[in-house]
Design a protein that fits this description.
Number of strands: 0
Number of domains: 1
Radius of gyration: 18 Å
Structural class: mainly alpha
Oligomer: single chain
Length: 208
C-alpha cells in the first residue's frame, strides 16, 4: 500500500493548478521561506482532509452528495482565488534593483501559510480528491484498516517531497533572474490565480 500511495502522490504532483502557482509566486518573489510557508499551509490542509475523510467519511459523502455542494464551494473557492490574484496584481513587491536577494522589510510567513491553507482547503478538487481516495480505496471491500497508515504515509510524503522540490528549484531559479523580473513574475502569478478563480466560478455555475 505504501507504493500505491507514493504513485498516487507522484501523479498528483504533476498536475498544474493554483497551488503550484501560489508556491512559485511566494518562492520566486519573496524567497525560500515564504514558499515553504505556503507549502506548510497546504500540507496542514491535506493532513486535516486525511483525518476528516478517514474518520468521517460517511459525513463527507453526505455533504458532497448535496446538490448545492459543488457550486457553493466553487463560488467560495473562486472568490478566494480571485482575491489572491487581485492582491498579487495590485500589491506589487518592493524589489531592490541592485540585488534580488534583498527581501521586503516587512513580511509575514503566517500570511503565506494561510494563503496556501485557504487555496488548498477551498479548492473543490481537493475535497473531491480526498473523498475519492477515502471512498474508492480506503473504504473498498478487502481493504484492511492497517493498510491505511502506509498508504496515507506514502501519499502524504510524496506530496510534501514534490512540493519541497518545487520550492527548492524556485530558490535556485530566483538567484539567476534579474531583480526587475520579479514584479512580472508576481503579475503573471496574480493573473493566473485570477483566471483559475474565474474559471472555477464559471465551471460551478455552468454545471448548476
Amino acid at each position: 500500500m505504501l507504493s500505491q500511495g507514493i504513485l498516487l502522490g507522484l501523479g498528483l504532483s504533476l498536475l498544474v493548478g493554483p497551488l503550484i502557482v501560489a508556491l512559485l509566486e511566494a518562492s520566486l518573489t519573496q524567497g525560500f521561506r515564504a514558499g515553504l510557508a505556503v507549502g506548510i499551509g497546504i500540507w496542514v490542509s491535506d493532513a486535516l482532509y486525511i483525518l476528516v475523510t478517514y474518520f468521517g467519511l460517511s459525513y463527507i459523502q453526505v455533504l458532497t452528495a448535496w446538490n448545492g455542494f459543488e457550486i457553493t464551494l466553487g463560488l467560495i473557492g473562486g472568490l478566494v482565488l480571485i482575491g489572491f490574484g487581485l492582491g498579487a496584481i495590485l500589491l506589487r513587491p518592493q524589489v531592490n534593483i541592485e540585488s534580488i536577494n534583498l527581501i521586503p522589510k516587512k513580511k509575514s510567513y503566517l500570511k503565506w501559510g494561510i494563503k496556501g491553507f485557504l487555496i488548498n482547503t477551498l479548492n473543490p478538487f481537493t475535497v473531491l480528491f480526498w473523498t475519492g481516495v477515502a471512498s474508492g480505496i480506503i473504504a473498498k471491500p478487502g481493504f484492511q484498516p492497517t493498510d491505511a497508515l502506509p498508504f496515507y504515509l506514502g501519499l502524504f510524503s510524496m506530496i510534501v517531497l514534490s512540493d519541497s522540490i518545487k520550492i527548492w528549484l524556485a530558490k535556485l531559479i530566483r538567484k539567476k533572474i534579474r531583480s526587475g523580473f520579479t514584479k512580472y513574475l508576481q503579475l503573471s502569478a496574480g493573473i493566473a490565480l485570477l483566471c483559475f478563480g474565474v474559471a472555477l466560478i464559471i465551471r460551478s455555475v455552468w454545471f448548476l
